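Supplementary Data S3. Sequence and C-alpha cells for construct A.
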Amino acid sequence: MNLDEIHDEELQMLKELINYFDTNNLNYFICGGTLLGAIRHKGFIPWDDDIDILMPRPDYIKFQELVKKDNLLINNYLEVHSLELNNLNDPFCKIMNLNTKMDKHYIDDEFDKHLWLDVFPMDGLPESDKKVKKNI
C-alpha cells in the first residue's frame, strides 16, 4: 500500500470506530499528529501513517470491557489489541485492520502485523493543587 491508500483505509477504519464509540456512548478526541494534520493540513500530515485517538480513562476502560464481550472485534475486520487484553506489547490500544498485513522492518512483534489506529488513555489531575504537586 502506498501512503495515500493507507490514509484512505485508515479514514474508513476511523469511521467504523467512531460509529462504535458513538453507539456505546464513549468519549474520544483526535490528538497528536492527527489533530495537527487536521488543523494545519486539513487532513493528514503528509508523511504520517496512523491516526491518534485519545479517550478519558473511564471510557478507555469501558471500551476494553465492551470489546472483551465481542471477542475483541468492533466489526468483522477491526480487532482491538492492548496490553490489558494480552495481545499487544504497547501501553495503549491499537485497532487492527485484519484485512491488511504490514511488514515492519524495524520491529518484529507477533501482535503488531496489521494497519492500525492508536487509542491512548487520558488521565486527569486531582482537583486540589496540593494533590497535583504531590504527583509531580
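Construct B, processed identically:
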Amino acid sequence: MELRKKGRAIRHTIGDRIFLTVDFIVLFLLLVIIVYPLLYILFASFNGQTTKMGLSLIPEKWSLQGYVAIFEYKYIWSGYLNTIIYTVVGTAINLFVTICCAYPLSRRDFKGRGLIMVMCMITMYFSGGLIPTYLVVKNLGLLNSIWAIVLPNAMSVYNMIVMRTYFDNQIPEELLESAQLDGCGNIGFLRSIVLPLSVPILAVVGLFYAVNHWNAYFNAMVYITDRTKYPLQVILRDILITNTLDPTETSTDIIAQQGMEERRNVMKYSLIIVASLPVLVLYPFIQRYFVKGMMIGALKG
C-alpha cells in the first residue's frame, strides 16, 4: 500500500482493489437478501388486493385496509397489551435475577463461586424437559397467569456469564475497598456504584431479554388457555399459520367486502409490521450501548 502526499487518500494496490470490489459485491448481495423480504412485507401491507404480489414490490392497489382490519380485531389489542405487560414485567425480573446472580459470582472473595458457576453452566446443556416443567408450573398454581410466562425462564445463563464478565473486568476492586472504608455495604455498593457504571451491559442484556419476551409464543401456547391472555405473537401465529380468525371480532365493513380467506391475506402482512415495529423503534436508542457492552462483557481483559 503506497501513501500519497500528506492529506490525500491512500493509494491501493491492484490486489487491494480486487479484494475490496469482491467484498463490496458480496456485502451488497447479502444486503439485498436481507432487506428485500423486509421491504416486500412492508409494501405488501399496503396492498389493497388479495392476490399475490409476486416478486414485485409495487402493490397492485395502495390501501390501508389491512391496518384497519387489524386495529378493529379485538384480540389484536388484548394481545398487544398482554405482550407489553409480559415484556416489561419479564425483563424486569430477568435483569433483577441476572444481576443478583452475576454480581456475587464476579466477586473473587465469594467462596464457592466456581461450584455455582459449574452448576449454572450444566443447565445450559441439560434441563428437566417440557413435561416436568409443566407439572411444576401446574402444581405451583401458575397456569393461565402472567407468572407462567415470566418465571420459568427468569434467567439466561449465557446473559449472566456476559454480565458477570463485565462486572469482573470493568469494576475495579479498589472501588469496593474505598466504598467499604466509607462504610458502604455490599448492597449499597451494588446499587450506588456498580449499576451506574454498568449501563452498557444492562442495556444490551435488557434488550436481549425484551426481544425474547416480545417474540415468545411457545410458553403461552403451553401454559395459557384463556384467549384474552394470549400475547400478540400467539394471535399472529393463529392468523398466519393455523388460519384461526374469529369473524365476530372483525370489522363489519371488511366482512361485508371480503371473505374469511381474503381477510387473512389482507391482515397478515400488516400484522407482521405492527408486531415488529416496537422492537425496531427501540433498537436505535440502545444501539450505542450494544457493541460496547457486548465486547466488554464477552472478552477477558
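The CA atoms of residues 106 and 167 lie 6 Å apart. The beta strands are 2-3, 10-11.
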